[in-house]
Design a protein that fits this description.
It contains 14 helices and 17 strands. The protein is an alpha/beta fold. The chain is globular, with a radius of gyration of 24 Å. The two termini are about 25 Å apart.
Length: about 475
């Protein structure tokens, strides 16, 4: 893959500063949310905004449901879902624009939903939702949202112009998880978006979507609208990227588990990526790659509370703060692989090959002289994997586990952090304790039913003035008998 920073530097930086403002689904979910968006974009600023929007909240899921229903032969159900979405977009538009503009917008929606109806008819006739068709179907949510937001901004007095992201974000043909072709994408952004900014306009584009060199629609994967914002920010040499959500930034843990969760004021790109990987819901794991390579700060902000300073994510943070946040990744399974004779490098390679053939990603790995332990996010496919490895190794697994992680710069280098964590959860059975190659996280594998309690205890231990629970501290540092890779 080309380096986005290398490609981005090839184009001359503009003479002005711009900011990419990405608004998630809950920030465009209804007319009130879109009005808040308009006020934020219209605020006086020395930076010229580029607006990237997700589909309205839950629309992508509903489009996926429509495609699945059509593929299963339930065409009436698929069409009913589209009708509900059609009426919802008209309702939101009615609360934002009036007169001729509303009539024009309604005609646009009618044309777009006729195209979607033809799409589900084709899916039903083929009895399959192939990846290429899925991309065309799901990408419609962002297209509809961008059309709606551009019209609302115009009605609010902002000179907004619509930009089709599929003309700017050039990708490979890996449908449903496409990768940008950086050189071409940056050239397109410079050619298409910069002139609008130079003319004082506000470009509005959908996230999540792109297209191949031949113009075939693709998507960047679920959550890819954040990735789109980062791609656009890097390509335009933005001074900052703002991710507008419905929370006050990145918090020390899930506020549904701990109502006293605190806002993290500042963290590094690596810390944020670890949080995303280990279960935090604020950011898509791939979001930060273009930004970190171009050294562009990313801010996570709350569209419902815009006065809150949010969380700034930068290339590097001093490690003095210790633990920044605690996550819990549920639905994890542990897979034990025991060789029939001995553990040889050939077996390790074969295990990896088998998991890859079955498209089964591995979260973590622990190896010892006599066994191999793997963490996976799903048990589907494990019976087939066990059958394929039969004769070479015995495969067993336990599901309903959760991986609880402490994340912060260099936490692994500070033994007092592990000691404090053990005191807090010492009476909870820990299946594995994970201190891997990354210095930014320490993980504990526990039964899923104990995850909530573990997070709450750890949060009290690290983020409140109360004393951590004192319990049995004789837990072994690594119950998996091996070093984490």
């Amino acid at each position: 893959m080309n380096d986005p920073s290398e490609a981005s530097r090839e184009a001359a930086s503009p003479s002005f500063e711009c900011v990419v403002m990405k608004f998630g689904g809950t920030s465009v979910e209804d007319a009130a949310a879109v009005r808040r968006l308009c006020r934020l974009v219209a605020r006086p600023s020395p930076q010229r905004p580029v607006v990237v929007v997700s589909a309205l909240a839950k629309v992508t899921d509903q489009l996926m449901n429509a495609g699945g229903a059509a593929a299963a032969g339930h065409l009436d159900s698929a069409r009913e879902i589209l009708q509900v979405l059609y009426r919802r977009h008209e309702t939101v538009a009615s609360g934002l624009v009036k007169g001729d503009e509303r009539s024009r917008l309604f005609r646009q929606f009618a044309d777009d939903f006729k195209a979607l109806d033809k799409m589900v008819l084709r899916i039903a006739s083929e009895k399959a939702l192939i990846p290429r068709m899925q991309d065309s179907l799901l990408g419609a949510g962002e297209s509809l949202s961008s059309i709606l937001v551009q019209s609302a901004l115009q009605a609010a007095g902002v000179d907004a112009t619509l930009v089709d992201a599929r003309e700017c974000i050039v990708t490979d043909a890996a449908h449903t998880r496409a990768t940008p072709l950086w050189d071409e994408t940056n050239k397109r952004l410079q050619a298409i978006v910069l002139p609008s900014l130079e003319a004082g306009q506000v470009p509005v584009m959908g996230g999540f979507v792109g297209a191949t060199r031949d113009g075939i629609p693709t998507t960047l994967g679920r959550g890819g609208s954040d990735f789109s914002a980062s791609i656009v920010g890097a390509g335009l040499h933005a001074s900052r990227i703002e991710i507008w959500t419905d929370v006050d930034g990145i918090l020390t843990t899930d506020p549904n588990l701990c109502p006293d969760a605190r806002r993290v004021a500042r963290m590094s790109f690596d810390e944020a990526a670890d949080l995303a990987y280990f279960g935090a819901k604020v950011l898509h794991p791939a979001t930060l790659l273009p930004a970190v390579r171009s050294n562009i700060p990313v801010w996570v902000l709350n569209s419902r509370n815009p006065e809150c300073p949010g969380t700034e994510i930068v290339a590097f943070c001093e490690p003095a703060d210790g633990v920044k946040a605690i996550t819990a990744k549920r639905g994890v399974a542990i897979v034990d692989v025991e060789p029939v004779r001995w553990f040889a490098p050939e077996l390790l390679r074969e295990v990896f090959d088998v998991f890859e053939r079955h498209q089964h990603s591995l979260d973590l790995l622990s190896a010892s002289r006599g066994s191999l332990s793997l963490l996976v996010s799903s048990v589907s496919g494990l019976p087939a994997i066990a059958e394929e490895l039969k004769g070479m190794a015995n495969v067993r697994w336990e599901n309903h586990k959760a991986l609880v992680c402490l994340v912060g710069e260099q936490v692994r280098r500070r033994p007092e952090i592990a000691s404090q964590a053990f005191r807090a959860i010492g009476d909870i059975e820990v299946r594995m304790i994970c201190q891997g190659a990354s210095e930014r996280n320490i993980g504990f594998l526990v039964d899923e039913s104990r995850a909530e309690g573990a997070v709450q205890r750890l949060h009290r231990a690290f983020f409140s003035n109360s004393e951590p629970a004192v319990a049995n501290t004789s837990q072994a540092m690594c119950q998996a008998e091996g070093a984490w890779l």
